[in-house]
C-alpha cells in the first residue's frame, strides 16, 4: 500500500491542532518560569509587566504556534504531494486483522 497523495488542507488542520497542544505546553512552561521569576524578584523594575507577559503566554503561544503549524502543514503536504509524484509515495504496510476485543462486548 502506498500513500500517494495527502489532502493539503486536512494536513494543515492536523498540524494546526498538533501545534495548539504544543503551544499549551510551551505557554505553560513560559508562564511558570515567568511567575517563578516574579516570585523571587527583589527589585521593582519590571515585575508586574513580566507577570502579565507570563500569563499571556498561555493564550498567545497556542495561537501563534497553531497559525504557523497550519501554514507549515500546508507547505509540507504540498511538497510531499510533489515528491510523491516523482517517487511513487511512501510504502506502508497495514495489518488487516481486526482486534477490537476490548471495545466489543463478549
The global form is elongated
Average pLDDT rating: 82
Largest sheet: 2 strands, antiparallel
What is the CA–CA distance across the termini?
32 Å
Strand content: under 5%
Alpha plus pi helix count: 2
**What level of helicity do the residues show?**
55-70%
| Helix and strand pattern | EHHE
Secondary-structure-derived class: mainly alpha
* Strand order in space, largest sheet: 1-2
pLDDT < 50 runs, ≥5 residues: none
Cα-based radius of gyration, to the nearest Å: 22 Å
- In total, how many beta strands? 2
Written overview of the protein:
It is a single chain. By secondary structure, the protein is mainly α. The chain has a domain at 24-89. 69% of the residues lie in helices and 4% in strands. The protein contains two helices and two strands, in the order E-H-H-E. Strands 1-2 form a two-stranded antiparallel ribbon. Helix 1 runs antiparallel to helix 2 (47-87). The relative contact order is 0.22. The model has no long low-confidence stretch (mean pLDDT 82).
Provide key terms for this protein.
69% helix; elongated; mainly alpha; 4% strand; two-stranded antiparallel sheet; 106 residues
What's the gist of this structure?
It contains two helices and two strands, in the order βααβ. It is mainly alpha-helical and 106 residues long. The radius of gyration is 22 Å and the shape is elongated.
Describe the SSE topology.
Layout: E1 2-3, H1 8-39, H2 47-87, E2 90-91
Antiparallel strand pairs: 1-2
Helix pairs in contact: 1-2
